[in-house]
Amino acid sequence: MNGKERKENESKSVKKYFVYYIEYNVNRYKVPLAILCGVLLLVFPKIISDRYILTISVKIGIYIMLALGLNILVGYTGLVSLGHAGFVAIGAYTASLLATKLGFGFFLSVLVGMVVAALAGLLLGLPTLRLSGTYLSIVTLGFGEIVKTIAMNWDPVTNGTLGVKNIPSPMFFGCKLTIANHGLYYLMLAMLLIVTVFCYLVYKSRTGRAFLAIKTDEMAGTMMGINVTYYKVLAFVLSAVISAVAGALYATLIGYIDPNTFTFDVSTLILSIVILGGMGTIRGMFVGAVILISFPEVSRSLMDYRFVVYGLILILMMRFRPQGLLGWQSQIPYRLSKHVKKQLEIDANQNQESSSL
C-alpha cells in the first residue's frame, strides 16, 4: 500500500469514527436531550412571539406527523406510497366540511376524519397486497389523484374548485385556539406527542416486529406464521389515520382548502422527509421535517426551485448516505424486551433439562 492510499484510508476511518462518535453520544444521552428539547418547545412561544415563525413551527409539526405516518409504511413495513396526499385530503376535507356545514367541533370532526381515512386505507390496502415496488407506487399515486379528482368534481359536498372557506379554529373549553394566543401551537405539540408515542409503542410492540419482519423478508415472515395480509393492511390503516389527523390540523391552520392544496408535490415532500431523516426511525422524521419545511422559508429566492433542490438532496442522500441522516439506528439489531429475554432463558433451560434426561 503506497502513501496516498494509506492517507485515503486514514481519512475515511477518521470520518467514519467521527460520525459514529456523534451518533453514539446522541443515542447515549437521548433522554436528557429529549427533555431539553421538550422544555425548549414549551417555552418557544414565550421567547419568539412572531406569528409568522409560529405558523411555520406549527407547519413543521404537522409535517412531522405526516412523516411519522408514512414511516409506518415505508420505514417499518417497506411499502412505498406516492399518494399519501390523498389521506391528508380525506382528513382535511372531512373535518372541514363537518365543522363548516354541520357545526361539529374540531375534535369530533378529527375523530370522524380518522374513521373515514381508516376505511380508505383499508380499501387501498386490500387490492395492493400482491403488489410491491414500482407497481405499488403507481397504484398509490393513482389513489392520490383519484381523491383529488373527487374533491374537484363533487361540487354538492366539497364545493369543487371553490374549496372550503372560513374553516373555524379549534375550541377548547370555550377558548378559541389560534396562532395569536399560542393555542394552536400547543395543540400541535400535544397531537405531535400523542402521535410520536403511538408510533414508538407500535415499533416496540409485536405489531412493530411483524412490520419489520415483512420488510426484511416477506417470505420468511410468512413461514414464521406472520399474517402478512393482516399486517400490510394494518400498516395502511395506521398510516392513513395519522395522516388524517395531521390533515385536519393543517386545514384549521390555513383556514381554506381546495383540491390543489393536496397535490402530488405534497406526497413527494412527505416521502423526501422520510428518506432524508432516515427510514425506520422516529427522530429522523423530526430532523427531516425541520430541514425541508424551513428551507423554502429561509431561501425565498429558491422558492420556485424547491422541488429541484429536494430531488438533488435525495440523489445525494442515495449516493452518499442511503440510510438517511439518522437511519443508522434502523440498522441496529432489534432490542428484545426484558419479558422476551426472560422467556427465552426459561425455554433454553427447559431444553437443556429435557436433553439431559
List the helices and strands and how they pair.
Elements: H1 3-28, H2 30-47, H3 51-77, H4 85-101, H5 106-125, H6 133-153, H7 155-158, E1 171-172, E2 175-176, H8 183-204, H9 206-216, H10 218-223, H11 228-254, H12 264-277, H13 283-298, H14 306-320, H15 338-356
Antiparallel strand pairs: 1-2
Query: Taking Cα atoms only, what radius of gyration do you get, to the nearest Å?
Result: 22 Å
Helix content: over 70%
Strand runs, count? 2
Strand order of the largest sheet: 1-2
Shape descriptor reads globular
User: How many helices?
Assistant: 15
Order of helices and strands: HHHHHHHEEHHHHHHHH
Distance between the termini: 58 Å
Walk me through the structure.
Residues 10-15 have low confidence and may be disordered. The protein is globular. The protein has 357 residues and is mainly α. The longest helix has 27 residues, at 51-77. A hairpin with a 2-residue loop joins strand 1 (171-172) and strand 2 (175-176). It has a two-stranded antiparallel ribbon. The chain has helices at residues 3-28, 30-47, 51-77, 85-101, 106-125, 133-153, 155-158, 183-204, 206-216, 218-223, 228-254, 264-277, 283-298, 306-320, 338-356; strands at residues 171-172, 175-176. Helix 3 packs across helix 13, helix 8 (183-204) crosses helix 9 and helix 12 runs parallel beside helix 14 (306-320). The termini are far apart.
